[in-house]
Amino acid sequence: MFLEQLVNGVTLGSIYAIVALGYTLVFGVLDIINMAHGEIFMFGAFVGMLIVSKAGAPLPVAFLGAIVVTGAMGLLLERFALRPLRKAPGVSNLSSLISTIGVSILLENVAQKVFGAGNHLFETPFAEIRFRVGGVTVYLVQALILFVSLALMTGLALWLARTRTGRALRATAENLATAGLLGVDTNLMITATVVIASAMGGVAGVLVGMAFNYINNQIGLSMGLKGLAIIIFGGMGSVYGAMAGGLILGIAETLVVAYGDSGYRDSIAFLTIIVVLLIRPQGLFGQAAPGMRR
After folding, report:
1. Taking the CB of residue 165, how many other CB atoms lie within 10 A of it?
2. Is 80 exceeded by the pLDDT of residue 30?
3. DSSP letters of 196-229?
């Protein structure tokens, strides 16, 4: 029983981690929180649902469709909601935050108008396929979600650490002006960051639909809030913190539902985050500000 719940928690946590990675990438480079990320993630889920459940296309097509649509949404977001404010003199980061909040509200209303307010089934052809690993029952959907999540997280970490483009992105995140002086096309790096983060949100949307078998126009808000909590918990701007925080939150929620009261699912999980932050305010993998160090 415990091992099965642990598998459920890791599966859920890996989805949370991908959502949080989208926030982390944008925050690390632009130093802003993209409040529209949750709604872009929601559109990825709807695109996947339309391709798999309505059109009957295979799952790889759903992932590809979600990546293309959400990546394009990220491109439009950066071009029309973030770039004009970034180039305007004397504009604070709060302006970009408010701009993304406006985009978030717009996208949520568009989704409600187009898809309606009810739940939509996300049916996959292998939803009931299961197998035994030792004494644990594992669904094929869970295995696929875990594989895609780990592959995406590992690929992102290797790309950031070992490729020239990844190093350029990290240089842009470290210091925008210095990166520009060293020959890095910072505008391209910023655009690529928002597009990649949005595309990852699209993948996470498809994974959520597979995990829960339904989606609605409110999942962006709930998953977005958890993504924000995770990046604070793991450490603002830390890729590894987003991964660890997502897994911890997913496991904590699952165990509370299995061994406690499902009504306290969110409260217990967030209480755990609060306790950790009281002990380590900068988060699990975050760096303390100079004034906070003893």
Report:
1. 13
2. yes
3. HHHHHHHHHHHHHHHHHSEE-TTHHHHHHHHHHH
Using the predicted structure, report yes or no on whether residue 95 has a pLDDT greater than 80: yes
Which of 55, 20, 18, 2 lies closest to 211 in space, CA to CA?
Answer: 18
Q: Is 71 exposed, middle or buried (0-12, 13-18, 19+ CB in 10 A)?
A: buried
- The per-residue pLDDT for 270 is 77
How is 243-258 classified by DSSP, letter by letter?
A: HHHHHHHHHHHHHHHH
Q: Is 90 helix (H, G, I), strand (E, B) or coil?
A: coil
**14 touches 147 (CB < 8 A):** no
C-alpha dist (Å) from residue 255 to 40, 241, 244, 260, 291: 29, 21, 17, 7, 37
Q: Which two tokens stand for residue 284?
A: 């699990």
Task: State phi, psi for 81 to the nearest 5 degrees.
Answer: -110, -25
Distance CA 198, CA 191 (A): 11
Give yes or no for a contact between 259 and 8, defined as CB atoms under 8 angstroms apart: no
Residue 282 pLDDT > 50: yes
**Contact criterion met (CB below 8 Å) for 237 and 289:** no
pLDDT of residue 289: 53
For the chain, how many residues are written? 294
pTM recorded for the entire structure: 0.91
206, 152 contact by CB (below 8 A): no
> Which residues pair with residue 214 across a beta bridge?
121
Distances (CA, A) of 161 to 154, 170, 182: 11, 9, 18
* Predicted confidence (pLDDT) per residue in 38-67, tens digit: 999 999 999 999 999 889 899 999 999 999
Per-range mean pLDDT, top range of 73-82, 250-259, 261-270: 73-82
* Separation CA 286–CA 292 (nearest Å): 12
DSSP conformational letter for 81 = I
